[in-house]
Amino acid sequence: MVIDVKVAWVKQQTDKKNFRLQENMGWEVLKIQDVEETDQKLEELIQKQYDTIIISNELSYFSEDIIRKYQKKDDVNIIINFR
User: Fold this and answer.
1) pLDDT of residue 52
2) So what's the pLDDT on residue 73?
């Protein structure tokens, strides 16, 4: 049995400290240039059926939907990376 889990790491374009390990291991870390696009990027990843989205703490402040819209969704886990 194969379990396919899609995980995304999301941070600001200028962020040099979060998710360095993931980047060094060659995993794709998505970078948002305009923080006002945070909710759009989350919606895009959910539409692409990502199971887990890990977002940097700094970027999470710019999302209105993390708590209001996705808190009770069972098909996606959104994790705020407190560093």
Assistant:
1) 93
2) 77
Is the pTM above the cut of 0.85?
yes
Q: Locate 50 and state its tokens.
A: 């990502």
User: Are 58 and 12 spatial neighbours (Cβ–Cβ below 8 Å)?
Assistant: yes
The span from the CA of 48 to the CA of 72, in Å, is: 19
The token pair that represents 57 in the structure block: 């703490």
pLDDT score of 71? 75
**What is the CATH T-level fold of the domain 7-81, as seen in this structure?**
Rossmann fold (3.40.50)
Domain ranges of the chain: 7-81
Contact 38, 59 (CB under 8 A): yes
Whole-number Å distance between alpha carbons of 16 and 1: 38
